[in-house]
Amino acid sequence: MVDKSALLFGASGLVGGELLNCLLKGNEYSKVIIFVRKSLDLKHPKLEERVIEFEDLSRHKDCFEVNDVFCCLGTTIKKAKSQEAFKKVDVEYPLEIARLSKEMRAEKFLIISSMGANPKSSVFYSRMKGFLEQKLKEISIKSLHIFRPSLLLGDRNEFRFGESVSSFLTKAISFVFVGTLKKYKPIEAKTVANGMYKAAQGKSDGIYTYLSNEIAELS
Ligand SMILES: NC(=O)c1ccc[n+]([C@@H]2O[C@H](COP(=O)([O-])OP(=O)(O)OC[C@H]3O[C@@H](n4cnc5c(N)ncnc54)[C@H](OP(=O)(O)O)[C@@H]3O)[C@@H](O)[C@H]2O)c1
Predict the structure, then answer these.
(1) Which residue in 130, 152, 153 sits closest to 209, CA to CA?
(2) Does residue 126's CB lie within 6 angstroms of at least one atom of ligand 1?
(3) Which domains does the chain show, CATH number per domain?
(4) What letter would DSSP give residue 205?
(5) What is the DSSP letter of 44?
(6) Is 184 considered catalytic here?
(7) Are 65 and 39 in contact (CB under 8 A)?
(8) Is 200 in the pocket of ligand 1 (CB under 6 A)?
(9) 38-50, pLDDT tens digit by residue?
(10) What is the number of the ligand 1 atom nearest to the C-alpha of 153?
């Protein structure tokens, strides 16, 4: 058992939930802290849960004194109800988490962005993810790992019409995702979580960006 500690954001979500499993089951971490809005009611000897107000992250600075910080936060415009509220969850919270991670000298910061992230995109979602990546790079975290998955597959507790249709269609034409199109192939949330876990055990200083097919290879 390696005596590392991890701090995870988004543990109640699709990828975050899978990642929490990896962190608790794997041998690399002896302590796993999660920040949630609502308790997951989960008991595990390695797990430390903090139910917090995300507006007030800096009050929990002490928890950032860990080896690795994982950020799997995210929302949808439909859930957030406005672009401003979406930006808070997908950009502002992650940036604050990254700043606190740097300040408290966490060794690695690993975060999910998205395929197509581009600060100049005309699509709001891709533009926000691109903006997030740009700002994260400016924070100069020692070891920054950005994951850009394509469409996520997995069992959600909620129904998302657009994702379900995309998932159905892309499965039907899965044979086209070869060669340069590999990066567009939908990816299981579990594969992304495994990829993040593996990346945290590997390369150290620097900025690393993983496209969907590279995440699958890591995993
Ligand atoms: N869906 C896709 O196909 C796709 C593709 C590429 C990239 N991505 C990106 O991948 C990331 C993870 O996606 P996912 O599908 O695993 O996400 P998810 O299942 O929707 O989970 C999102 C997490 O963020 C938390 N969250 C949402 N709003 C919050 C708020 N206001 N304050 C605090 N926490 C909040 C949720 O906590 P609660 O349970 O408390 O709400 C949950 O833990 C996201 O950044 C997403 O944009 C998604």
Answers:
(1) 130
(2) no
(3) 4-218 (3.40.50.720)
(4) S
(5) -
(6) no
(7) no
(8) no
(9) 999 999 999 999 9
(10) 3
